[in-house]
């Protein structure tokens, strides 16, 4: 396991550096997905937000949803409720959650450790709990297309950059979906399905760089074995 780094720099979360129409579109998706789960469950939810970022999402969820929100982050300077490494999430978290939100976080760890992070999230979810994650998708976009239940892309064709062998670490991201042949959407989905059932998979219409997955906890005993 590699040593974790705090990748955000001074002023990374300032309004000028961080805010955009596209980012607000992704914020809307995060809040809307939590609200949909809340409506379906018909109860107040216990929500864990992994990755504090600019701190807005926990506040917005509290405002628009009837949720109890706990924040978790590796960077203590962001003042999360719990400071820790995602690889040891189950050691820090003392109870399971109905929903775990982990958006634009997992690309900040090496891809080889992606499955380990998902396993930790799985462990901290209630049976039947939901996980909402988003990851950058920098595949080649031709526009147009169709929407399907599993490969859904909101009518946007997105192709993997198969001609690239690997993605070069840029000081922030270790990998991105479809950025190279080893990170194709098909391969990423295969890893996710080792521990979760994929309920939704889509690109944000106004932010094609962000791909969302809504996952449910899979209780099959051999969930972490390769298939």
Explain the layout of strands and helices.
Elements: H1 15-18, H2 21-41, E1 45-50, H3 56-64, E2 67-73, E3 82-83, H4 89-92, E4 97-103, H5 114-123, E5 125-136, E6 140-141, E7 158-159, H6 185-192, E8 196-204, E9 207-217
Parallel strand pairs: 1-2, 1-4, 2-3, 4-5
Antiparallel strand pairs: 5-9, 6-7, 8-9
Beta strand %: 25-35%
How would you spell out the order of helices and strands? HHEHEEHEHEEEHEE
Side-by-side strand order of the widest sheet? 3-2-1-4-5-9-8
Radius of gyration equals 17 Å
Oligomer class? single chain
Largest sheet: 7 strands, mixed
Tally of helical runs: 6
Overall pLDDT level: 85
Which regions contain 5 or more consecutive residues with pLDDT less than 50? Answer: 150-155
End-to-end CA span: 23 Å
Overall morphology: globular
- Class by alpha and beta content: alpha/beta
What level of helicity do the residues show?
Answer: 10-25%
* Number of DSSP E strands: 9
Q: Describe it for me?
A:
This protein is α/β, with parallel strands linked by helices and 227 residues long. It contains 6 helices and 9 strands; from the N terminus they run H-H-E-H-E-E-H-E-H-E-E-E-H-E-E. The strands form 2 sheets. A 7-stranded mixed sheet has the order 3-2-1-4-5-9-8. A hairpin with a 2-residue loop joins strand 8 and strand 9. Helix 2 crosses helix 3. The longest helix has 21 residues. The chain is globular. The relative contact order is 0.15. About 3% of the residues have low confidence.
